[in-house]
Amino acid sequence: MTYETPPAEAMELRQRIDGRWLIVTVSGELDLATAPRLEAALDVPELPGGRTHVAVDAAGLEFCDSTGVNVLVRAWKRLRALHGQLVLLHVPGPLRERMSWMGLDKMLSLRETLPDRAVITVRGPAWERAAALPEDA
Question: Where are the strands (E) in the chain, listed by range?
């Protein structure tokens, strides 16, 4: 049996700025072949304007394997270390279920809309204690 590696074009990435947020829209397949592109887009030193509030819009994501999930978790850790935030928007049902099985829905913020205010972790895991930043901070 032969397996073909999907081309990197199997995933489309778009970025836009919405106030304090960098929004990265991901569509297609997020897997071993395409994950490095998302990893580069979420690399903290390269984020436009030094932004540390990032939303990944996953509405168009058709497939995500463990490599893709790991990219998201690593990005969350990097942003959290900078008192930033990673939000996953419009996570498709199968991926949302998989994240729930892994307990990641308790760690990562899975939402349908951007938060009105940026939330940073003050101490401990994100679900234990958080503080809101003023909009102009």
Answer: 11-18, 21-30, 53-64, 85-89, 109-111, 119-121, 130-132
CATH, domain 8-132, list 3.40.640.10, 3.40.50.2300, 3.30.750.24, 3.10.25.10: 3.30.750.24
For the stretch 94-103, pLDDT in tens is: 999 999 999 9
CA distance 99 to 128: 19
The set of residues, in sequence order, having a beta carbon less than 8 Å from that of 52 and lying 6+ positions away, is 44, 79, 82, 83, 84, 85
Tokens of 70: 């790991």
Please write the tens of the pLDDT for every residue from 27-54.
Answer: 999 999 999 999 999 987 767 777 889 9
Helix (H, G, I), strand (E, B) or coil at 32: coil
pTM for the model stands at 0.76
pLDDT given for residue 53 in this prediction: 92
